[in-house]
Amino acid sequence: MIDVSGLRKRFGPTVALDGMTFTVAPGTVTGFVGPNGAGKSTTIRVILGLDAPDEGHALIRGKPYARLPHPLHHVGALVDAAALQPGRTGRNHLLWLARSQGMSATHVDTAIELVGLGRAARRKAGGYSLGMRQRLGIAAALLGDPPVIIMDEPFNGMDPEGIIWMRGLLRSLAAEGRAVLVSSHLMGELEGIADHVVVVGRGRVLADARVEDLVARASDDRVRLRTSAPDDAAAALHRSGTAATVTGAHTVTVTGAPAQRVVEVLSRADVTFSEVTTHRATLEEVYLRLTGGETEYQAGTPHREARR
Which SMART domains does the entry link to (predicted)? Predict the structure, then answer.
């Protein structure tokens, strides 16, 4: 598992980490999300021993990265897919890493086949597309068959087939009992694969919970109703003590009552309706609510240039 506790880090006057604390459990995919400047990259660098914290600790299976013997056997990470020697072939890049960790060429060939680079393995990596470089970086992360996996923006450069493959890979790694930490800006992709999510802003944790729990809390027990008689529907719901607001020519939004209750009230009042839908928030909605005041950079409202 990964244990991050009380991390604090400053770069001059800038506070990068302000008490960052969370864990990544075995057998789960944990999403790690936040706006630019939230501290995600710095946290990952501290976990991997690339930066030293001013306070706190980051442990992998109970030890800091620097104390792990042959670390690729304990943790695999995709941090920067461009960090390779462009004149080497993809296979030679992996061989160099493997030999530094006491691994054989068999580990290399297994990883190459797993990520689907078999036909490109003997080509120079400098000619790889971004998606292929991502796959090479993932192969490097998996070389030592580690129990802990860290992926920073793994969907970058992936085509639709690659995205589908990546989803399945991350889920399968967790199903094998590994602790998987995934940093990404693609909320839709994370919602489909993550069991847990850590939302961060300005160097601290804003939320740390199961995805389904966060989404349920943000859904607000809202029901959307489609009817040709919205005023009659709202009136009937009001008489029953249920809050309802006409929100369109044929729509009513109901709060504080389940869909079954709405159907019962309208049926008794002989109000016709064509659809009753329970609102379910998305992970993106949850993210935007939690990080609304935590963004370091915000764009202005687009406007058209005034006519002269």
Answer: AAA (SM00382)
